[in-house]
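Weekly modeling sync, notes
Attendees: AB, CL, MP (scribe)

Item 1: holo prediction request
CL wants a bound-state model with magnesium ion before deciding which constructs to order. AB pointed out that an apo prediction alone won't tell us much about the pocket. Agreed to run with the ligand included and paste results into these notes for async review.

Input as submitted:
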Amino acid sequence: MHEAPVTASDTVVMKFGGTSVADPDRIRGVARRLVEARERGVRVVGTVSAMGRSTDSLLELAGRVSPHPDPRELDMLLSTGERIACALVAMAVHDLGHEAVSFTGSQAGIITDAVYTRAKIREITPVRVLEALEREKIVLVAGFQGFSRDTMDVTTLGRGGTDLTAVALAATLGASCEIYSDVPGVFTADPRIVPDARRLPVVSYEEMLEMAASGARVLVLRAVELARANGVRIHARSTFSDEPGTWVQERGEGVELPPVRAVTHSRDDVLFTVRGLEGISSAAVLRAAAAEHVSVDTVVLGVGRDGAGLSFSVSAEDVPATRRAVAQAGEGLALLEVEESDDLGKVSVVGAGMRSRTGVAARMLQALAEERVEPRLISTSPIKISCLVDRAAVERCVRALHDAFELGDTNSQHAIYAPPLE
Ligand code: ADP
Ligand code: ASP
Ligand code: MG
């Protein structure tokens, strides 16, 4: 297996996640990384997330003040986290003898639609970024945020949105894109759960999309979509080491791949089951969910004695919006029965090699059965099989599947990477 060559672009966008800027020492560490890149002669744009878990703290604070925080005000609040981190990194860069300037998303020209808390980037007019780069400054852009021209308001891009800021800036500036986090790349499973998970040197966009969609937090789904649409190669690396990381790009590794490349999981799936659908169609429920910007995962439609039943899963953060959607679609129908199961998680196996192989589902179910786990729902795509299982069994299932598909590091008797626990 070969590692992809470094791109020749003269500008690099370097993104650092919350753990990477969690305290003053780490902020100084990020500043050093940016300065090192600048001293290699490239133009540097850094984009950072809010410090540590501060976005969660702000959300919790909002919830303590108001049971249903106004989305516009939520964006005003949440966008401050990235702004703080960005200004602090710029200060630390100054102390290393380099010029730096920090911008909010709006100052950087990141224009979005007006959908608060999950805005989509419409265009970027990076006039001030280019001007500052021209003056040899290291530019810091607050991640996860933009500005709506329609409402003249600050918006945020959805959880994990700084990855998206990075890819969007790289696409606009024709820059290379490096995403730094607390793990040295994309692994065959979450290395916090599977000690012998291996780093994947190269992952195709196609596989990364499925991995991100099924819970591999290391890169956010929308960032991978944007990267693919714009041909931006993502280099996922560790903030804390110089290991080679993972290249996410169009082509794979040029070798025949095993059927399964990675096991992914999520722990926040909520399954809605709506029964008694006479009078309203299942499409109306899904349409109402889409109008609430809920992204619906596994969908199963069954017809029983008491009418049609629709089951679909959503992530926990979308539950309030899903409840609104179901209530709205079922208005006036006393018979509508809605059940929510929030004791579920999801385990998935992903691999482009699955297309041409048979028996993957059988092997997956066998491994789960050996753990005495009965999947509640199974869904498939050409390169992914997902099972909704008891939340308490998720970690056990991930490890069992990782073993069953022989993804571990067979050459090593010890964990190749054990990330620091928070
Ligand atoms: P950041 O805050 O830098 O954006 P995240 O917490 O969003 O970082 O993503 C990094 C985390 O993703 C890791 O700490 C790891 O636990 C988790 N993760 C889940 N699946 C994978 C995987 N397949 N490979 C690497 N990391 C993974
Ligand atoms: N701070 C935001 C979040 O926690 C955005 C990000 O980290 O990318 O979701
Ligand atoms: Mg992230």
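Recorded for review: The CA atoms of residues 195 and 418 lie 6 Å apart.
Action items: CL to compare against the apo run; MP to circulate these notes.
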